[in-house]
Amino acid sequence: MIALRSLATAALVRGLYIVGKHVFRRPASAFPGAVGLALDPDVMSFCRRGKDVVVVTGTNGKTTTTHLLASMVKARDRFVITNAEGANLPAGLVTALCRGRGRIAVLEVDEGYMPNLLHTLQPKLVLFTNFAPDQIERFDDGSKLLTFIKKRMAEAYEEYGTQLVLSQKDEAWHSLFVDAPYVLRVPFGTIDVSHGSVYLQGTRYALPFRRRFELENAELALRAAYAMNLEPTHIERALSDVRPVEGRSTMFSYKGVPLTMTLVKNKSGFDALFQAMSDEDRPDRVLIALNDAPSDGVLGSWLWDVNFSFFKTIRPERLVLSGTRAFELAQALYIQGIPRQAIWIAHDPESSLERLLEGLSPVAIEHEARRKVHVYVNYTAFAQYRKYLTSVPALSSSLSPRPAVVSS
């Protein structure tokens, strides 16, 4: 009876996903799974049966690493199950497992949920990207979470033979699992930032990345591929077609002006972004939107530690702040030497984008030297701005400038 209920629920999840994608033309990555879990809490376990699961978790880089590894598996097996949209909470995992085809599932899993899901997913392999204490603060006690992760990993190793592949550079994970017998000692690769490649076990793999943190994610995915006995020919075939992941850094056109929106979740994300930025990448206009919803993490603990003095070096012609933490962000920038008169504050996607692009036009951008417009957002701000940018009509822009007032 239970199996019949799970079977029916899985079919419903698949149906809801198909309707959402093809009728309403929306990703429907979490809603079908949420319905499924409400009807049958065992549906994730049911849909996982008969599949070899690989889990990718950590603070940053999960989506890119998952995307790369899933592409490599697909090059060999033709089909792979994955949550490509980055829906890494239980509802998103259920949707992926119920709708997907394939023997292997490569799943991005939120690091806070991961230890409690190990028993349900029973993964063969777990990849840890990196660890940022500021993001772990989303949970009541970060140190207890790490201890819990180690305990559950040991149990999964004993019960299911789960093994672990660690990021090359992250000392926190290496110190936590220093004596763990389940850590796979796959030889590290050599990263070549200038050529966008990783050299691993006698083969050089070319990638469509030029930033070190992206290549570090790729190096982890490559070592996991070797641990899964994927052949270099399959890996090379996948990498020849791979593209940067949609959603984490996305191009939009706002009223004819091109802009790049990037998800940046924490201090380490900002620092990596600034350090990797070449002269050609440096933006002329910048918008930062940060919210403090529960899914955004504990913002105040790291906001003051980001090296925003980067903006003193590049001197963008316009710097706009938005989101629920805009005023605190403005204070952090001012303390690091960004003049008050250089900072603008707006309170919603429409007004902040108008302020950002004031004085620019598609014609001007086309005929001037290329102007780079960048928008940096955290989780909930990303959803707000994406929703607005995909719905805004092509109208002309008009707003009179007014600088922000930042109290000292």
From TrEMBL:
It comes from the Bacteria. Coiled coil: none annotated. It holds the Pfam family MurT_C. One of its GO terms (molecular function) is transferase activity. InterPro entries: Mur-like_cat_sf (IPR036565), Mur_ligase_cen (IPR013221), MurT_C (IPR013564). Keywords: Ligase, Transferase. Residues 263-382 form the Lipid II isoglutaminyl synthase (glutamine-hydrolyzing) subunit MurT C-terminal domain. Residues 56-171 form the Mur ligase central domain. PANTHER family: LIPID II ISOGLUTAMINYL SYNTHASE (GLUTAMINE-HYDROLYZING) SUBUNIT MURT, MUR LIGASE FAMILY MEMBER. This is Putative amino acid ligase found clustered with an amidotransferase. It comes from Candidatus Carbonibacillus altaicus.
